Amino acid sequence: MIYDYLVVGHGLAGAILTCFLEENGKTALVFDVPKANAASRVAAGLINPVAGKRFAKSWQVDAFLPAASSFYQSMEERYQTPLFHRKPILKLFSTPEEQNNWMGKSTNTAWDDYIETTHLQLPLTEYVHQELGGLLIQRGGYVALRTFLQLREEELQKQGRLRTDSFEVSQLELMPHGVRYQGVEAKKIIFCEGAQAAQNPYFGWLPFSLNKGEILDINVPNFDASYIYNKAVYVVPIGQQHYRIGATYNWREVNEQLTPEAREELTSKTKDILKKPFTVTKQYVGIRPAVRDRKPLIGIHPEKPQVGIFNGMGSKGVLMAPLLAQQFVSMLEQQTPLWPEVNIARYLSMYVASTSNI
């Protein structure tokens, strides 16, 4: 059988891309070695329309959020399983300065669809440190990534379209009108390898800025939060008095080793939010495939039209991947242009420089 596509990697990016290939009537064979600490499997799956301490709207959120909501809803209907858990986010102010910073921006009407209310003060509670107030952000929540990926893998396995052996790039053959790998042929191959793409011989010239993230699962007896809390870290209710805490960012030691320093950092910051005692039940680590300009890496190799990449989502993949996968498939099949901000063509000069040094 000749496939339309080989897809290497079945984390969030590969899984969503494969969904849109199927939707467009294309056949895909997926290669993925199951890895418990892959970034997509350990992430909390947070969707937050507001970015960081600067109180900025997440890039292109007005386009990304409707597409993401529609996609995850369609997956919920397909698998008859809850996946996108919509929950308001209470962004707590850390200092009076942070509170003032927000008030200076709050008159901008661009926020109207996302900020439900601003609280300059919140009542005392036995559960949460919220005396300085905060923002109540709507239209956010989290996606149960591990569940989604497991459902997709089970479906692909039943269809015989998932191979769980390691993909050896050295065995990939490029032909005039396609690719061949261990006797399997396809029209194109798309690499969705996450952090591994930094070592891929076809795309190692791209400016990945990998970083290590660690998160915790905790148990908080007698507390069921109505919100996702955010103040230096997020506290995501995942059911039955269990919460996910994250995340750290470490660009210096990009490895998959759990560290006591990260555990201490997350524990300390959680205590700045929660008044209730808690117990750490699990610690996770993953490597984010972030990029220097914080925009994804999508497109076709400059000189090898059979080879593509869908990667570099960083910590915003849950929000961005559905729309970008849809756009990429449209580019692959109808030659519709990608947004220039995500197209790897923006780094063509780096490719030219890398080849001139050979």
Write the layout of secondary structure elements.
Blueprint: E1 2-8, H1 12-23, E2 28-31, H2 39-42, E3 46-47, E4 50-51, E5 56-57, H3 61-79, E6 84-86, E7 89-92, H4 96-105, E8 115-119, E9 134-137, E10 141-143, H5 145-158, E11 162-163, E12 172-175, E13 178-181, E14 184-191, E15 211-219, E16 228-231, E17 233-239, E18 242-246, H6 260-271, E19 279-288, E20 297-300, E21 307-311, H7 317-334, H8 348-356
Parallel strand pairs: 1-2, 1-14, 2-11, 7-16, 14-21
Antiparallel strand pairs: 3-10, 4-5, 6-10, 7-9, 8-9, 12-13, 13-14, 15-18, 15-19, 16-17, 17-18, 20-21
Key terms for this structure?
8 helices, 358 residues, eight-stranded mixed β-sheet, alpha+beta, globular
Mean pLDDT: 93
What fraction of residues sit in β-strands? 25-35%
Largest pleated sheet: 8 strands, mixed
* Envelope shape: globular
Counting H and I runs of at least 4 residues, what is the number of helices? 8
Q: Give the ordered list of helices and strands.
A: EHEHEEEHEEHEEEHEEEEEEEEHEEEHH
Q: Between the first and last Cα atoms, what is the distance in angstroms?
A: 37 Å
The tally of beta strands, per DSSP, is: 21
Estimate the helix proportion, in percent.
25-40%
Sheet/helix structural class: alpha+beta
Low-confidence stretches: none
Q: Return Rg in Å.
A: 21 Å
